[in-house]
C-alpha cells in the first residue's frame, strides 16, 4: 500500500499558502462548539493548546508532569533556526530548506521542509512579541550563531537555555487561556489508551498518577504532542519520564509508525561515568562554534591534555571536513568520534570520549566573551564532572538524543486515524534520517502555532464529528484494557526490578541498533528482546498498588511498551538495506566510511501497521519525490 501524503499542488514555495486558502474554515461562533484534546505541554503541545484556545476551541490539555513548565522541551539548550539572514551572510528560506533536506540525508518530504523553512521567520517574530529574551548584539539587534550542517549563522538563542525560554513563552500564552477558561489543564496524567469511534479519534483514557484512577475524556479531535522514544535505549539525554506509550497506544489502534529506526545520536554529551547512571547530560551543539574537537594522534596516549603538544593532536573533524570543520551534522560528528575511540585514541578513564577544547577561543576572545555565550553550560559541566572547562578541555561522547521516526502524518499533520493529529517529535515528518541542530524547536513551534490551527479546522469543518460521551462502549472497552494491563503488571510479583529490565533492553538496543548496525546484530537483538519480553511478564517486580501514587507501576507500563517497540525498531532497521543519516548499516558505506544511500530502492518513508500481538507488522511506504533538490551523496568536505 502506498500512502497519500495529501501534498497540495502548485509550485513548492506556494503550496502552503494555497493549501491554507483551500482548507475549509470553522467560523468563530462555531469553534466554541468543538472540544479538542492536546496531550503534552512542550513546545508543540503548549503552543498548539494556547493557539487553538485563542481561536475559540475548548481545549483539554494533559501533561505527565506536575506543571506544563516541566515538559522536556525545557532541556533544549543551543537555539532555534530561522531564515532571517540578520548577519547578512547568505541565508535564505531556500537555503534553510536545502540544508534541512540535505541534513536529513534526503529522506524527508520536500513540501513539509519547505513549509517549515517558510514558517521559521514567523516563529521568531512571534516569540519576540511574547517577550522571549533572545540574545542580542551590542546594537540591540537579535544575535545569531552557527550550528552543525550549515555554513551560515541562523540560530537564535538565549545562552544555553533556549528551550526553557521558548517554553515559558508558550506557557504564558497557555496560562492566559487557562485563566480565560478556554483551556482546562490536567497535570499528572498519563495517556494509556486512544479511543476510536467510527474510525475517528474521539478521546483518550488517562491514569491520574496521584490517585491511580482511570479517567475518560472525549473530544472532536485529539492532538498528540508526546515527544520521542529515545529512552528505549535506557541511557539517553531525554527526561526520565519521556516514553513511547501514547504513540504506541495510537499505533495499536491503527496509526502507522514511520521510520522508527531513525534515531539521532548527539555527539556532544558528557560520557557515561558508571554502571548506576540513570540518564546522560547533553552539552549544547553550540559549543562546537568555539570548541575544537581533538584526540591524541597516538593510540593509547594517556597523558593529560595540557601535556600533549599541538603537533601530537588530531583535530580530526577540521582535517577531514575542511568546509564545515567542527560544525558537521550530528550523525557525521558522532560516527567520527566512535571511529576515533575504536582506533584506540579515546580519552578519559573509559577511553570512550574525545576532547572539546576552548583554549584557543579563550585566548582569542577572552574568558568574558566565552562566559557570556556558554557560561551556564560550563557551570553545568563543572557541577557534573568536577572539571573546569575554562582550564581543561571538556570530554564528550555521543549519546542517544532525538528520534526522527514517529507516527506517520500527512501534510495536514494527521495520522492514518482521522482526527488524530501528531505534532513535534512525536511525528516523523520534517527531519528525514537526521535532524540538524536547532531544528527541533523550530518544528515544534511551527506545528503548534502555525500549522495545526489551520489543518484541524479543515478536518472539523469537512467531517463535522457527531457528539459522543464517555459512556460510549468504546470508552468502556479502552478503560477496561488499561485496567487489565495495570492489574497484570502488578500481579506478576517476580524478582527483577523494572529498571533492571530497562537497563538490559537499553544495552541490547545500543549495542546492536545504536551508532552502527549490521544485519546479523539486528537479527540477534530481535531474538534477545523477545526472550527478555517473555521474562519481563514472568519475573518483573512491581511493588505497591494501582490505586495510588506508584512510580514503579508508571515505569513498568512504559518499559513494557519499550520491549515491544524495540522490536519494531529492529524490524524497520532490517527492512532498510542502506545507510542514511542516523541509520548506519555497516554493509553500506563509502570508501571514506560515510553513509551510502540506495535511492533506487529506499527513497521512501517506511510506515508500519500493527497486525496484532505476536504478528509481524504490515509494511507500507510513501515514495519520496524530489523535484527541487538533486539527490547527491552527502558531503561536508
TrEMBL record:
Entry annotated with the keyword Transcription regulation: no
Record's catalysed reaction(s): a quinone + succinate = fumarate + a quinol
Any single GO CC term annotated in Swiss-Prot or TrEMBL for this entry: plasma membrane
Domain FAD-dependent oxidoreductase 2 FAD-binding: 36-441
Pfam families associated with the record: FAD_binding_2, Succ_DH_flav_C
GO biological processes: anaerobic respiration
Enzyme class: oxidoreductase
Transmembrane keyword on record: no
GO MF, one example: electron transfer activity
Main location: membrane
Record-listed E.C. numbers: 1.3.5.1
Coiled-coil residues: none
Cofactor(s) for this UniProt protein: FAD
Residue ranges occupied by any Fumarate reductase/succinate dehydrogenase flavoprotein-like C-terminal domain in the UniProt entry: 502-636
Similarity section: Belongs to the FAD-dependent oxidoreductase 2 family. FRD/SDH subfamily.
Protein name: succinate dehydrogenase
Organism phylogeny: Bacteria, Pseudomonadati, Thermodesulfobacteriota, Desulfobacteria, Desulfobacterales
Gene it is expressed from: sdhA2
